[in-house]
Amino acid sequence: MFVIQSFRAAQQARSTQGNLSVSLLRQPQWAFWTRTVWTSEESMRGYMMSGVHRGVMPKLLEWCDEAALVHWTQDSQQPPEWTEAREKMQAIGRTSKVNHPSEDQRAFRIPELRVPITGETKLK
């Protein structure tokens, strides 16, 4: 169910005003990443607080044993490389609350990405 709802939330992001890019990444061991780029923080927050995204985020508490996010501002409107996003996640990101956290979630250890990157879906 989580995978389907993640894809629906990504489609919502794609159609939200101010969105420049949406990509999904599937990694081993049921790890899923979403990367979005926005014209403004206001646009991003509007997306976060509405539609599918708002409805599905509370379910993350039970569906996931690991969840995290990172937000930063950059000059480029191009999405960062997945490896850069992972590095930022580990350096300045934060965990999301889950009801059954794994040991990695508790220690805030973000797994290395499998390189070369495969399993990416670009929506915009």
Primary descriptors:
three-stranded antiparallel sheet; alpha+beta; globular; single chain; 124 residues; Alpha-Beta Plaits; two-stranded antiparallel sheet
Polypeptide structure, described:
With 124 residues, the protein is α+β, with helices and mostly antiparallel strands. It has one domain: Alpha-Beta Plaits (2-Layer Sandwich). It has helices spanning 2-15, 41-48, 51-56, 60-63, 82-92, 103-107; strands spanning 19-27, 31-38, 68-69, 94-95, 120-122. A hairpin with a 3-residue loop joins strand 1 and strand 2. It is globular. The protein starts with a helix and ends with a strand.
Quick description:
The protein is of the alpha+beta class. The protein contains 6 helices and 5 strands; from the N terminus they run H-E-E-H-H-H-E-H-E-H-E. The chain has a 3-stranded antiparallel beta sheet with strand order 2-1-5. A two-stranded antiparallel ribbon has the order 3-4.
Reconstruct the topology from this structure.
Layout: H1 2-15, E1 19-27, E2 31-38, H2 41-48, H3 51-56, H4 60-63, E3 68-69, H5 82-92, E4 94-95, H6 103-107, E5 120-122
Antiparallel strand pairs: 1-2, 1-5, 3-4
